[in-house]
Amino acid sequence: MLSATLGITDSIIVSHSVGISQSAGSVREDYSLFFGNGNNLVGIINIGAHNLNHEPGFVAPAADNYHLGPHSAAIDQGINSGVAFDVDGQAREIPASAMDKEGARFVVNRSGSLARAR
Q1: Which residues, at least 6 apart from 101, have a Cβ–Cβ distance to it below 8 Å?
Q2: pTM over 0.90
Q3: What whole-number distance in Å separates Cα of residue 61 and Cα of residue 92?
Q4: Which among 19, 57, 77, 93 could disulfide-bond with 40, CB atoms 3.0 to 4.6 Å apart, if both were Cys?
Q5: In angstroms, rounded to a whole number, what is the distance separating the alpha carbons of residues 113 and 54?
Q6: Given a cut of 70, is residue 32 above it in pLDDT?
Q7: What are phi and psi of 107, to 5 degrees?
């Protein structure tokens, strides 16, 4: 039996049949934005009080551009997780409690594979 703990924070989870599923171990989640999922959470998950259920406001998701638009509900809603650079090596200038204003840099695209956001 697995007994690992998974912590999920500062995540945008959109258009999945299940957003986060716990089947073994323990899962804790907070500071996430959910939209258009069949079920956001399945299983026993320690849920934080800082989640949003709102359209994320991506720039052009049909073109795999998952940067946040200027009016995204996710802007300034996360928590500083201590990450100084994004996956492109760019410095992240994040206020004490803000998500990356440029949006996701690494996403699971429509085909299910990992891709860098443009």
Answers
A1: 68, 75, 76
A2: no
A3: 22
A4: 19
A5: 24
A6: yes
A7: -135, 165
